[in-house]
Amino acid sequence: MRRTLQHPARIVPLAFLCVIAIGTVLLLLPASREGAGHASFMTALFTATSAVTTSGMSPVDAATYWSDFGHVMLALLTQIGGYGIATMATLLGLLVSQRLGLRSRLMARAETSAGLALGEVRTVLVLAAVVMFASEAVIAAIVAGRLWLTYDVPLGSALWEGVFNAIQAFNNSGFSLRSDGLFGFVGDWWICVPLALGVILGGLGVPVLYELVRELRKPAAWSTHTRLTVWGSVVLLVVGFATVLAFEWGNAGTLGPLGVSEKILAAFVQGTIPRSGGFNTVDYAAMDADTTAVVTGLMFIGGGSASTAGGIKVTTFFLLAYVIWTEVRGERDVVVGRRRIAESTQRQATTVALLGVATVASGTLALLAVTSGVPLDRALFEVTSAFSTAGITLGLTASLPVSGKVVMIVMMFIGRVGPIAVAAALALNTRHRQYRYPEERPIVG
To answer: Model pTM greater than 0.90?
Structure first.
């Protein structure tokens, strides 16, 4: 047992479970609930899981159900879950001891899945913290200033709402201090753009941010991972924006009543958020079926590796696209930007994608089994949103039975920790064979 718990890939899921348990206890306190009494166990567990996994899904109206203390707990849990439990603990240890041992570096590297050299871990951890807090500070200042100067929100309330929304944006979560979310700011560029940019920045990932800081002016020197993440994210953002704008332009329930500039802004926000953020300025439940189908796909892909986003990740998706293209052309090596991709990396990408598909499919079937009268597309949307920690809902989550909420909790946990990390935590036998079997090629396709 001791040797098992020392494995970094197994410590990470256990760390998340511990923080979720602590968060559940804190949210069960009467001080966390607005009004008399305390939250139910399932509500506290669901909300704590959603916060730690940076999903933002909620079975209740988080703005009115939780007290000020409860909202502080939500912000704190989101921050811890977004930056990473092991990386947060490692950084605190670094600040205290001024040094980083091999074990701490292995733990941090395992959680971020960054594939960094051990000598870079300390630098990356510090950089990630600086980028996170600096970005949140800028977003909070802009949002708070706008609320105070334009919407006459008292300065103290504006500052707190700005900080809360900034934490939710950068960590790709979606809790809100308003019952209607961002519906009231659908045409406000000073509110929507900073929050959307925070979601994009937080969804790029620690390795990409580290490399962009070093080589921002030299795109030719970017690694294959950074190129796939940056340009892949641009492609997906354009696809999301164009899809929402084209399909929802005349929809009376979403973009239809808005002016041209407001439609463009709303399409940009709602094309960005499905990557893993949970904010919404229009009602997703009122969207056309073709739009929600594309949004489901965007959620499943998610954001960058080692980021606050969920999904199978941008790099995985586009790497598999290169693998398919190489196979179609009959070439031997998968080449991305004049770099040959290792077969082990290809296998890992395939494993992540297939485990993701299997997880979402299993979750959807489980949700359909414990509910009645729920259409397949709505169940698939909710489960994908939980798995990708996007936090977007069609209004189904709040009405789910206890068994349905358990399914969503499991999906959020797997989506944040990662299918491979969960599988590694369950696979206790890690011995490697010292021999190889004869090769044989079955017919494929």
So the answer is: no
